[in-house]
Design brief:
heterodimer, A: 109 residues, mainly beta, six-stranded mixed beta sheet, three-stranded antiparallel beta sheet, 45% strand, globular, B: 121 residues, 11 strands
């Protein structure tokens, strides 16, 4: 059972905009910035969004993040076939742990 | 170019021990905190342990506390995870990751390719 709650799956057609939610509590997202990781099956996770809404160099601006109180969202606009992957949110909690969401499998139809 | 290369993952019997290594290059290793994150087959990511740049601060997930020990050798640009009293539920791909920031604003910006640990009789 993951500390942060994400929908297990999401889908969209090429060109669409999809959002993935991440719900936490006052002990984690409520006191921490949120980060998002993309994982293509069989490969290592890759940092996608950090500090709620910052994109590392090389990440397209189609990807955006937001946070409000104890929840966060990842939005992907102009959906492409190679966006098909697993997406994880993550935050730090007040027990000196780093916690992840259970992951959302994104399918591009 | 930042590179993290894990090694040491093997098949081990329940109750056994194992030491994972992570060799770092392409950045000033001694200036960065590091973590281990694992992923059981078909499951999500689980943070395992954290060590600060000087090794002064060390934290563990409750699931491994008392059984795993994280350490580092800044002279060798290497991170380690000593795993004792291994259980079937420790079976996972173990990733080392570079940590950026502090506490509430930390994130893992680079990850290794992972090493598979299988605990089975």
């Amino acid at each position: 059972q993951s500390v942060l709650t994400q929908p297990p799956s999401a889908s969209g057609t090429p060109g669409q905009r999809v959002t993935i939610s991440c719900s936490g509590s006052s002990s984690d997202i409520g006191i921490s910035t949120v980060n998002w990781y993309q994982q293509i099956p069989g490969t290592a996770p890759k940092l996608l969004i950090y500090k709620n809404n910052q994109r590392p160099s090389g990440v397209p601006d189609r990807f955006s993040g937001s946070k409000s109180d104890t929840s966060a969202s990842l939005a992907i606009s102009g959906l492409q076939s190679d966006d098909e992957a697993d997406y994880y949110c993550a935050a730090w909690d007040d027990s000196l742990n780093w916690v992840f969401g259970g992951g959302t499998k994104l399918t591009v139809l | 170019e930042v590179q993290l290369v894990e090694s040491g993952g093997v098949l081990v019997q329940p109750g056994g021990s194992l030491r994972l290594s992570c060799s770092a290059s392409g950045f000033t290793f001694r200036s960065n905190s590091m973590s281990w994150v694992r992923q059981a087959p078909g499951r999500g990511l689980e943070w395992v342990s954290f060590i600060s740049d000087s090794s002064r601060s060390i934290y563990y997930a409750d699931s491994v506390k008392g059984r795993f020990t994280i350490s580092r050798d800044n002279a060798e640009n290497s991170l380690y995870l000593q795993m004792n009293s291994l259980r079937a539920e420790d079976t996972a791909v173990y990733y080392c990751a570079r940590v950026v920031g502090a506490y509430r604003q930390t994130y893992f910006d680079y990850w290794g390719q992972g090493t598979l640990v299988t605990v089975s009789s």
